[in-house]
Amino acid sequence: MAALTLDGVDVMGERLSEEVLDVIKRKPDMRKISFVAHSVGGLVARYTIGRLYRPPSKGNPEYSSSNSSAEESKATIAGLEPVNFITFATPHLGSRGNKQVPFLFGVPAFEKAAGLFIHWIFRRTGRHLFLTDHVDGKPPLLKRLVEDDGDCHFINELHVNIFRSALQAFKRRVAYSNVGYDHIVGWRTSSIRRHNELPKWEDSINEKYPHIVYEERCKACDGEQCDSVLVEDDGLDEIEGEMVTGLSRVSWEKVDVSFHSSRMRFAAHSVIQVKYHYMHTEGADVIRHMIDHFLL
């Protein structure tokens, strides 16, 4: 099964789309849908919701459930009301350069070499993460995830000066990010920020959520606002800047996490989502934070 994660974000997204539709078919009383994803799973989820997104209209029988008639004037995900879209340590901006993969130590030569050879190990998924998948003249898949692409409405579908998209359809979008010790996914790519937007943080004194060190509510900005910020950041990769701009067209709640004082800090990428309960219990406060703030 692990090898299936190497098939590419789009192939995994198609599989997840089919699984979601199958669950809806077997559970016709379902009314709402949320996505909680970790690491590259967040990109797969973004592809999936774009695949299953249906704009406000009367009549999408293929994707509508028996209870969707009351909601037919609203955008849906496979006929269901979208509620939460939550990611943990997801490389939203990819893994190419700019210290996006910490274990490469920010050394340009290492980062460039990784982009050239990563597909040997991680196949199509590696190409997607390092933005080297130029097929038939199309931009990389992660770039296409911030715009309309065929029948997939990922984020930038413009209707009467309002951007309607799969991500916009959710009531809230949340990105949990490790500020350090995540050697697989860097802080900027998981928190969808530019260099100059990374906040200063201090060790938390919150007893209930000791590893939550910073929280931010980011309002949606239009293209001109995002572009004005982009000009000020001279060191930003062009495609990466376009992805930040696209993703910033919708509001986000960003939660920054630090395991600096944890004995398991070097496994932060797994600890943040408590991959193994017997090993990663120190990340439980992050899960409690998600449940308390976004799932209740």
Topology:
Elements: H1 9-26, E1 32-38, H2 40-52, E2 53-54, E3 76-77, E4 81-88, H3 108-129, H4 141-144, E5 148-149, E6 152-153, E7 157-159, E8 162-164, H5 166-169, E9 172-178, H6 187-191, E10 212-218, H7 223-232, H8 238-247, E11 252-257, H9 268-271, H10 284-295
Parallel strand pairs: 1-4, 4-9, 9-11
Antiparallel strand pairs: 2-3, 5-6, 7-8, 10-11
Helix pairs in contact: 1-2, 7-8
Beta-strand segment tally: 11
**Helix-strand pattern:** HEHEEEHHEEEEHEHEHHEHH
| Straight-line N-to-C gap | 32 Å
Rounded to an integer, what's the Rg over CA atoms?
A: 19 Å
Total number of helices:
10
Tell me the strand percentage band. 15-25%
How are the strands ordered across the major sheet?
1-4-9-11-10
Detail the poorly predicted runs: 66-71
**Shape by Cα distribution:** globular
Overall mean pLDDT stands at 81
Helix and strand composition category: alpha/beta
Largest sheet: 5 strands, mixed
Helix content: 25-40%
Description of the molecule:
With 296 residues, the chain is an alpha/beta fold. Helices cover 34% and strands 17% of the residues. It has ten helices and eleven strands. The strands form four sheets. A five-stranded mixed sheet has the order 1-4-9-11-10, with helices on both faces. β7 and β8 form a beta hairpin. α1 crosses α2 and α7 packs antiparallel against α8. The protein starts with 8 loop residues before the first helix and ends with a helix. About 2% of the residues have low confidence.
